[in-house]
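Priority: medium. Attachment 1 of 2:
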């Protein structure tokens, strides 16, 4: 968790939810990203731990959206460990990998 973010402040959680909803609304042909909507819904309900669990379980679906992935990493940390600037080779929290091209 980021020491600069007050995860117990309802206003912080709701502001993050609003930002995530705004980022995802035009993705996927205008349908949005369902797991991001779920994370935002839990943040609006002030259920940070549940939102973090959804992030950990469904994070592979956000990797193709660079802006969303960067915001989720900023707020929650790496997907696997929940650490900010995680140095584990599998996390690579500062590296964004676009989806593989379709053949």
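Attachment 2 of 2:
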């Amino acid at each position: 968790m980021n020491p600069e973010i007050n995860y117990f402040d309802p206003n912080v959680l709701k502001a993050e939810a609003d930002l995530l909803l705004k980022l995802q609304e035009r993705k996927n042909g205008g349908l949005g990203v369902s797991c991001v909507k779920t994370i935002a819904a839990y943040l609006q309900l002030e259920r940070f731990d549940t939102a973090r669990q959804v992030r950990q379980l469904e994070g592979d679906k956000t990797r193709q959206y660079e802006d969303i992935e960067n915001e989720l990493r900023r707020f929650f940390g790496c997907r696997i460990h929940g650490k900010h600037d995680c140095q584990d080779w599998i996390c690579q929290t500062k590296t964004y990998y676009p989806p593989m091209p379709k053949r």
